Amino acid sequence: MPIQDRPSNALPELAAALAELREAGITACRGAFTAAWADRMREDVEAAFEEAAARPGGAVGRGPHRYYVEIHPEQLRGFAELAGHPWVRSVCEAVLGPEYEIVELGFDIPFAGAVDQPWRRDFPSPPATWRDHVYTSLAFNLTAVDTREDMGPFEIAPGTQWERGDDFEHAMFPSRAAYPRYASAARRKLPRRGDISVRSALTVHRGTANRSSDARPVLVLGVDAPGAGNAGHHDMAVTPGYRDALPAGVRDHLHCAVVDRLTPIVQKHTIEGLVMGAD
User: Fold this and answer.
1) Model-level pTM?
2) SUPFAM superfamilies given for it (predicted)?
């Protein structure tokens, strides 16, 4: 069983996790899966990257030596275990409501030589968030490696999910004049295999320079509240047989096309890639 047998912090500390998520814009469940589960995830990520990098539009640049790839659930052997994890489901229900929608599955890979990214959020903030302080989406991240300081760790500026951001470039990228403010508040994350973190994608963050010789793959699971609209930015799909075999608690929340044959996804993050590629 890939979920740890020992009692986890999944449900007893849910209230504390939700409070941290609301205040800081990020929280985590340590040791949600075994290292072996994460190693299998890495195998699937590396296979998907090899396939995507070999075709046009398969992997989009997020700066030098850094890529993002969106994949289908069937490309990840542990998808049902991840989407059905008690902590993941509990957080989604508490924050986004019982009809939450899984809309994105992908991964980031900063390779050796990746540089500091510009501070950013993943998409413009909707009024429900900047005005009403309501989350309409969440991003779950799972590292495929035990993160070291020299591997370009993820940095995040707590509390910035509530900033309106209408003066950001493309409503996503704050001006360079604001960088010192974010850097002074930033927390650097060093997750280990088996950990799950969840954040508002609107909390200002960046990947840092990878000065090691090792890649640092990170899986991304994107989840929406009903009506948030992020599914339109993704092309995730499943086949009928795969969908029908999923547990109901996962299947009922999967918001994507059902197709007879999967086709490779062409990535859509063009504005983000252009801005980051210039750094």
Assistant:
1) 0.92
2) Clavaminate synthase-like
